[in-house]
Amino acid sequence: MPAKDKSEKADNTKEVKPKETKSKTKKVGSEVKKAEKKTKKAKPKKDVTIAQPKPNEVLPKYIRRIVATEKSVNLIEFRNTLVFEVEMFATKQDIKDEVEKLYNVKVVDVKTLITPKNVKRAFVKLSPDYHADEIAAKLKVI
User: Fold this and answer.
1) In the chain, which residues have pLDDT < 50?
2) Whose CB among 23, 77, 92, 120 lies 3.0–4.6 Å from 110's, allowing a Cys bridge?
């Protein structure tokens, strides 16, 4: 058998065409329409109403909320300490003044930390004359 040249081999090979994907079609009357993909529609945003302060009520400027976790409840019961989430720009002195003003207590010490979730927490230790569990009960933490 005689050897074939490479040029002859190239002529004999079949061309491979990429497979065409078929889209779903729907016949409506005499027209053929392609089916459109169904996409989820964006849900309309709910209207958020902001609570208005009562006439003689003072809203906190630096304190966002009191933290109610198992650790914070233990601190309230055994160390007379309240735990708050506060604004990032709040200083220890700002937090101390606001807690004293809002809850009518004497603050001994304020320690702050920033969590990995970028939330600032303040640990507010009260004077022995005042009880953190009474304030926590008013705020419905305990």
Assistant:
1) none
2) 92
